[in-house]
Amino acid sequence: MQHPSEPAEDGAPASRQGRLRRLNGLIRRETPRTAAAAAAGVALALAFPPYGLWPLSILAVTALSLLTRGRTVRQGAWTGFAFGWPFFTVLLKWLHVVGWDAVLGLAFLESLFVLLLGAALAVTSRLPLWPLWGACLWVAEEWARDRTPFGGFPWGRIAFANTGSPYTPLAALGGAPLVTFAAALTGTALAGAALALWGLRRKVQSERVTDPDSSTPVPAGVRSYADLVPLLGSLTLAVAVTGAGYAVPVPTAADDTADIAVVQGDVQQPGMEFLGRPMKILNNHVDATLDLARKVKAGKVKQPELVIWPENSSDLDPYRWPEAGDRIDQAAKAIGVPILVGALVDHPSREGYVKNQGIVWDPKKGPGASYTKQHPVPFGEYVPFRDELSKVITRLQRIPRDFWPGDRTGVLQTGPARLGDVICFEVAYDEIPRDTVNAGARALVVQTNNATYGRTGQPEQQLVMSKLRAVEHGRAVVTAAPSGISAVVAPDGTIQQRTQEFERDVLTATLPLRDDTTLADRVGAAPEWLLAMVGVLSCAAAWFAGRSRSVRQAQQTRHVRQKQEGQQ
Hints:
Blueprint: H1 14-46, H2 55-68, H3 73-91, H4 100-124, H5 130-145, H6 158-161, H7 171-206, E1 208-210, E2 217-219, H8 229-244, E3 256-264, H9 280-297, E4 306-308, H10 322-335, E5 339-346, E6 353-362, E7 366-372, H11 386-392, E8 402-403, E9 411-414, E10 417-423, H12 431-438, E11 443-447, H13 458-473, E12 477-480, E13 487-489, E14 495-498, E15 505-513, H14 519-523, H15 526-567
Parallel strand pairs: 3-4, 4-5, 6-8, 10-11, 11-12
Antiparallel strand pairs: 1-2, 3-15, 5-6, 6-7, 9-10, 12-13, 13-14
């Protein structure tokens, strides 16, 4: 007999050979499941713009539920990671403008949340009503990812893939979290139906009998209606949840209106160097506004009551650089109405910091009320641990100054309209649009600048967020971008007008203004917290149930041993 430490015939120790065999066996067993998880993750990414195949979001949830069903915590975690990293890599490929290392790094970080989701799905898959707990866990995963680290990154929420699906109206009741829950519950219910169907198939194959009156084999396993209850129950749940959105009223009646113009002046070039030479972007927006004023004077276009410019439409601080302020003033006086201008403004007391602002520029009084972006983007608008990281990642030195966050909502009286200003990525965070509407905004404006990521799919991904917010808050949403996509979204989430990317354009529209708030505005984050807590508690219940089983099994084993010893 060979000792484990002795060399084997090929010269390798027997213990090492045993480990290699186990590793090879593990790889052979897990490769098909891992490949299926990766394919499901890619399918989920295709549910988002620019592809927009929203049914794939349901099927992806179904696939992950089946792949983690009955697995160990470790196996479920690996499956979740194998699902999450490809998903975020495809979804966030627009970051390749910064670098593919940024794509893979951020995708890896975000996939760690899906890793925890996979482990939790595996644990709770043994509980009764497991599809319900699974849907709650999807909400819990997004709850955590939306908040940490550095304020979170909400991109890739299932709700954002379902802005034109039957689940969309549910946003008016419980916001984006309820849309995620409903879509995920449909997916987990379909997983339950697939398992029930598979169980029936196996039962039919193992219990076939011959009908005494016929030579045709009859499946004994489905002779009782009770055998069909799991299948029919799961399918009924999936259909009911899918149809629930059609029963939700989406109020759109306007209390008042305002005639607006949205100016998209375009940029010098797409990519990281979109700013071009100083004053280029500002002059583009001034010239487009002057052209609009000429058309108004000639009677070709209706006189707007306010004009909206995008984020970074003034590429110089108009308070510090007189030439920038003079140009904005020229445009405001020519059109004769207030302009909502986007500009980076030096912080008045914090040297080295800037504020990303929306400024109401009146044709008579000049600059007035302003809103400062509350949620700057980490590693895009400020660098955490700048002194340490900039030495390692030299690319971060291209962000010379950090943005200073604002401390209040963006409700601004812009001409006749009380608008709620939301700047760029802030539209992805639930609390900022909700707080703005609850503070009195009658319509929402998303000032954004997607020039860095033009023609990558990122502008489309951000635009659908405006669609969801429109339904969630019962407000028209205006998206203004220097290079596109600028759009006017009605309170029911339909896009009334939109521009093409990297084209100078001006949208004119009659904007509905509303005062009523939706149930989602009134209940706030309560549905999300409730659903997330249910998901977390289901994990705790599964842990206690597993521990109780282990204790019972240990007791039974001891009892058998004692009985055997007594017989001896």
